Amino acid sequence: MSFPIIECIYIPSDENEAVAYLSTLVKSHPEIAACAEWRLDANNSARAVLEAFVEDGTLERISEEYARCLEEEAQRYEAEIS
């Protein structure tokens, strides 16, 4: 039994963005690399792989809008401390 990764993700609506995002997740969490590769080979869709990780409970999903809000907040914070 595997334990879920405590991370909230968003699933981009654009497949190219999903590929880049999945790549970033795999680099951050090498423990999902083999499963991600297997799922990508089977589905040929990074979006489908991300959906599968949410469905099996490995990752939690947040909305793309909320993800943008978090990114904007992080950028404001970085600007303040610079």
Helix and strand arrangement:
Elements: E1 8-9, H1 15-28, H2 33-43, H3 46-55, E2 60-61, H4 64-81
Parallel strand pairs: 1-2
Helix/sheet category: mainly alpha
Percent in helix? 55-70%
Task: Write down how many β-strands occur, each being a DSSP E stretch of 2 or more residues.
Answer: 2
**Mean of all residue-level pLDDT scores:** 88
Describe what you observe in this structure:
This protein is mainly α and 82 residues long. Helix content is 65%, strand content 5%. α1 crosses α3 (46-55) and α2 (33-43) crosses α3.
Question: Keyphrases for this structure?
Answer:
two-stranded parallel sheet; 82 residues; elongated; single chain; mainly alpha; 65% helix
Summarize the structure.
With 82 residues, this protein is mainly α.
